[in-house]
Amino acid sequence: MSVLFETSLGDIVIDLETELCPKTCLNFLKLCKVYYYNLNAFFNVSKDFLAQVGDPTATGTGGECIWSLIASQKGETAQRYFTPEFNPRLKHKERGTVSMAVAPAIGEEHKGGCGSQFFITLGENIEYLDGKHAVFGHVVEGFDTLDKLNEVFVDQDGRPLKDVRIRHVEILEDPFEDPPGLVVPESPPTRPPDNSTRIAEDEDPLETLPEEEAEEIRRKKAAQASALTLEMVGDLPFANVRPPENVLFVCKLNPVTRDEDLELIFSRFGTIISCQVIRDKKTGDSLQYAFIEFDKREDAEQAYFKMQNVLVDDRRIWVDFSQSVARLNTHWSNDVKMGPRRGGRGKGGFGGRDDLEATRRYRGQSEERRNDYEMVFDVPGGGKKRHRNCPHDEKLMCSPQSVDFRVHRCVLSTASPVFEGMLSLPQPSSDRDTIIPIIPLPEPHTVLEMVLRFVYPLEDPVITSLDQLVPVLEAARKYDFTAAVERLRRRLVSADFLRASPLRVYGIAAHYELSEEAAIASRAMLSVPVSEQVPSEELKHISAYDYHRLIVLREQRARAATSLLKPPRELKCMQCNGRWEKSQEPPRWWTDYRERAREELRIRPTSEIIFTLPFLQRSAHAGCTGCATSIINSSWFFEQLRQKIDDLPATIPFEW
């Protein structure tokens, strides 16, 4: 029996011990069913200990069991708490143990027990909670969410400074019958039950953009999401489709205006491809608007400026650029009537239209690739059949593994000056039984395929490792495929490669004299210890001077960053500096923080580690009881210090 919690930090799936704790699980499941936990905030988070939730007031004093909730809805009274099951086999040993918080008894009138509050353990072997709180479940999925929850900033009461809430609860399986009188609301709540003044879960406290720019970014994201939704349901051929710039929308027409009349009037501005007055399907009556497609965009612009508010058949027409993409064909088709049918009639169509075809990601994956890895894409041209085996138009690339690639000569000549000169020379004869000229190449077929996919107007191949990228980059540079080299250079300094092996990226960039990429890799090397980097073959091709410059950059930046570790006079702790004789001394936590920050900067001369919550918490534990508050109040100082460290020189200038 499981429950899915959708929180602002991620999802958590909890398995319940319904056989060992039936009453406790019944109470929990029915509270979930009536949306009692929706939008509840985690009000007590202790690092490596527990995270408590389930109180609508977020104070730790609220909440009630399901039977009390049902009685209060009827205007009756019932016990606020119930007595849970304590099973000796269920203990707080593992991280992710879920327990009901047991309230103590207050006198004879207020009996102790469990209401709605529960907690999830964030550490292991918390055995002193056994027998005090009732275990009834365990987290089985979402431990990454628990890690995020364990690292949140909290105030002196343990509540996160930025709200962490349960957005929604899904009951995956419920074996219990509903208690008598249980009424499930029609919809979940839309507002939090507590009056929180914390940082909202969707609010960025460090956001520096003006409100207008932030609103513009939100609108763009919403528009992208809407376009993707329309693509998924088939209303758009692809999400980033744009309306054509050579089509005009004309409205407020007279019902008697015909296609021929409108085309004659607008033809003085240029060649018109199509002019259509939209009519009712059943009656054939004009809907008083039309679309006019010009051959050139400039002609459409001229007509837009000259024909606005012109009198046509006793009506003042309105002209604008069309925003419709319903008539838009994909880039495979030149024929408006035929549409993008690449294999004859009947093969086109997308979203219920014959003149549209889906982009490649919607294409069936069952198409078998031919043995020759053909990469020829013909566009229908006026119904004329093209000869696919014309020696003047096509060439055959042959790899050492006898895998052939049929390519267009014009594509290779345009993409590579090397092939432009090679193909202009007479080709040697071949023993192969084919009329297509053969170009033997020494590269493996896997490398040639990736290079050609960068050259042709296809989706870039997926490169998951540097072992794949290096031979492809070598071949692209060898044959001078400039566009492919540029995209491979961007892939070389992608985040995943820089995170996994920045030293190897630096070696590859230095070997091929890629100055921009080498500078980016030198910056990424600051975030990892040099001793942890595995030597690679590419390092054999760089000079000792370049490697020495990398080491010197780390040492100089470490010394410069260490020299910035000076506390300002405003850095105080109310307890450490409470006495007059200690008022001029820095807080106790600063001494520990400075020593550990110096050691960390010698290893990684960046600001990535020394400002993290675990790093600051260790300094807080090394100080007095008031040092934690002092660290929180010193956030302005840490921001200034971070900015100064980030402004230090972080790259090596190269001049190859």
TrEMBL record:
Q: Where is the BTB domain?
A: 392-456
Tell me which Pfam families the record gives. BTB, Pro_isomerase, RRM_1
The PPIase cyclophilin-type domain is annotated at 6-171
GO molecular function, one example?
RNA binding
Per the record, its GO cellular-component terms are: nucleus
Q: Which residues form the RRM domain?
A: 246-324
Alphabetical list of SUPFAM superfamilies matching this protein: Cyclophilin-like, POZ domain, RNA-binding domain, RBD
Stretches with biased composition (Acidic residues): 201-211
Judging by the UniProt lineage, the source's domain of life is Eukaryota
Provide the E.C. number(s) assigned to this enzyme: 5.2.1.8
Annotated segments matching region Disordered: 177-211, 336-364
- Biased composition of type Basic and acidic residues is found at 352-364
Q: Subcellular localization, per the record? A: Nucleus
Q: Which UniProt keywords apply?
A: Isomerase, Nucleus, RNA-binding, Rotamase
Entry keyword annotation includes Transport: no
Which EC class is this protein assigned?
isomerase
What does this gene product do? PPIases accelerate the folding of proteins. It catalyzes the cis-trans isomerization of proline imidic peptide bonds in oligopeptides.
Q: Which family does it belong to?
A: Belongs to the cyclophilin-type PPIase family. PPIL4 subfamily.
Name of the protein in its database record: Peptidyl-prolyl cis-trans isomerase
